[in-house]
Amino acid sequence: MLQAYVRSTAPIGRDSARIGPFLATFAKDTNHPMLNYAIPDDGATPSSADVTALVSAYRERNLLPRLEFFTESAPAVEAALTAHGFTLERRVPVMTCTAEDRVNLPAPQGIRLREPATDDDLRRLRSVQNVAFGEAPDVSDADIERSRDRLTILAEDGDTIVGGGIAMEIVAATTEIGGIAVAADYRGRGIAAAITALITRRAHERGVRTAFLTPGDVGIGTVYRRAGFHVDGECVHLSLS
C-alpha cells in the first residue's frame, strides 16, 4: 500500500519515464538527489539490460542514478542493483500512524503552532527547513509553488518561525509526513514531536487513515514514537556514483 502511494505521488511536478520494471522520476528544476530517483515495480526482478537502461537515463540528464523503495515490495531489487555497482546510502525504518495510534501533544510553553497564512510564511518556513537539513537558506518561487497546496504546520516563537513540517498529497486515505525540522537553538524542547502530532491529527481530520514517514536517523524516530508512530517496514536508498 505505501509503495503504491509513493509510486503515484513521486511523479507529481516531475518528469517521469517507464524503464523496464522501474518508474524513473526527474525533477524539473533541481538536480537534488532526494528529488530525482526511481522506484521498482512490486516484485520486480530487473535484468542487467534494465539496470543499464535506468543508469543511462539518469546519466544522460547529468543526474545521480538513484533509487528509493520499500524493501518488502521488491525484495530482489537490492541484490540486482548492488551486483551492478550500486551502493547502499542508508536503510531507514518506515513508521506509520493511524488515528487510533495518534497521541496528541501540546506545544511547549511560548511556542505557537499554526498553518501558514501567506507565501511569506511558507518562504520563511522553507528557509528554516533548508538550514536544518544542512542546505542553503534560499527558497525559490518553485519551492513555494510546490508547498502552497500541501497541509503545512509551522512553529513560531513570537514572530520568528522556528520549525515546521508538511503532509504530502492524500491518496487512497494515505499521506506521507515529511520535512519535520526545528532550528538548532530550539531543539530538545519537544517542538518536533508537537509539530508531528498536530500535522498528523489534521491529516486524519481530512480523511487520512494511515500517515507514514521515514525518519532520517534512529534518534529522530524516538520523537515520532511520542506522537504515536511505530515501525512498520523498511526503506532503502541506493545510488551509483
Concise account of the structure shown:
The chain is of the alpha+beta class. It has helices at residues 2-9, 48-59, 77-82, 119-132, 141-147, 191-205, 218-226, and strands at residues 14-19, 22-27, 38-40, 66-70, 87-97, 112-114, 151-157, 160-167, 174-182, 210-213, 230-239.
Descriptive account of the structure:
The protein has 241 residues and is an alpha+beta fold. It has 2 domains: 2-85, no CATH class; 97-231, 3-Layer(aba) Sandwich (Aminopeptidase), CATH 3.40.630.30. The chain is built from 7 helices and 11 strands. It has helices at 2-9, 48-59, 77-82, 119-132, 141-147, 191-205, 218-226, and strands at residues 14-19, 22-27, 38-40, 66-70, 87-97, 112-114, 151-157, 160-167, 174-182, 210-213, 230-239. The strands form 2 sheets. The chain has an 8-stranded mixed β-sheet, with helices on both faces. Strands 1-2-3 form a 3-stranded antiparallel β-sheet, covered by helices on one side. The two termini are 30 Å apart. The model has no long low-confidence stretch (mean pLDDT 94).
The appropriate CATH architecture of the largest domain is: 3-Layer(aba) Sandwich
Low-confidence stretches: none
Helix content: 25-40%
Number of domains: 2
Largest sheet: 8 strands, mixed
The run of helices and strands is HEEEHEHEEHHEEEHEHE
Layout: helices, strands, pairs:
Elements: H1 2-9, E1 14-19, E2 22-27, E3 38-40, H2 48-59, E4 66-70, H3 77-82, E5 87-97, E6 112-114, H4 119-132, H5 141-147, E7 151-157, E8 160-167, E9 174-182, H6 191-205, E10 210-213, H7 218-226, E11 230-239
Task: Supply database-style keywords.
single chain, 241 residues, alpha+beta, Aminopeptidase, 2 domains, eight-stranded mixed beta sheet, three-stranded antiparallel beta sheet, 29% helix
